[in-house]
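Researcher: Please translate sequence to structure tokens.
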Amino acid sequence: MSLVSRLRGRAIELKSPGELGAMRAAGLVVARTLQLLGSHAVPGVSTGELDELAEQSVREAGAVPSFKGYHGFPATICASVNEQIVHGIPSRLQVLRDGDLFSIDCGAILDGWHGDAAITVEVGSVAAADRELSAACRAALLAGIEAAQPYGRLGDVSHAVEQASLAAGARNGRAYGIVANYGGHGIGTSMHMDPFLPNRGKPGQGPRLRPGMALAIEPMLTLGTEHTLELDDGWTVITQDGSRAAHWEHTVAITENGPRVLTAL
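Model: Translation complete:
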């Protein structure tokens, strides 16, 4: 049975080593599915076709898609193209084109445990600025993972993501938009759990990171504004100024020996 740590009035689920092992199995389903989709995300393929491939991959592994049916979401993956940041709904009518920047978010449930991860794929030949944006977002993710140390604070992770994003922008001569009103979250027996993990923050603040916690760390960067709009479909989130966006995510366990990425191959 999972333990629960109550911090500041919120219940944060703590997992045993065996339960984290079960989450790792779910995470591998997600990782393999994302690897498959990344190899098939080429010009001329629709996001609807990729969604069908994702569902087949997840179910053949004995798992269930986390997203499909979640508050009415109609698909296995979130398929977000160019100015779409997160929660894009895949469609047979949305065909990938050369130069697109394509973020794929996928979740799976295996034996009651969730895995959740996202990648950004360069479709064909993309502009240098888009390639740098995706690399900056991935670097921010890796910095957040490195900061997820036992007995540290949640704010340490947020701060690491923010600082890595700012540093990448300085190197590239840009001011990336750090999307602040969407972020990471706790994960385990449910996909979205406490605590919420902002992509900006101060070190040394927030709940203490305890072995057995699991976090979905997911920076989102844009080439322009941090401000967002939600489309009329009630799901798709886009940049307010139409600038392109990138999204990277891993599910990460806090252990006595440091962070353990559960959704990496």
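Researcher: Any highlights?
Model: Confidence is low (pLDDT under 50) at residues 1-9.
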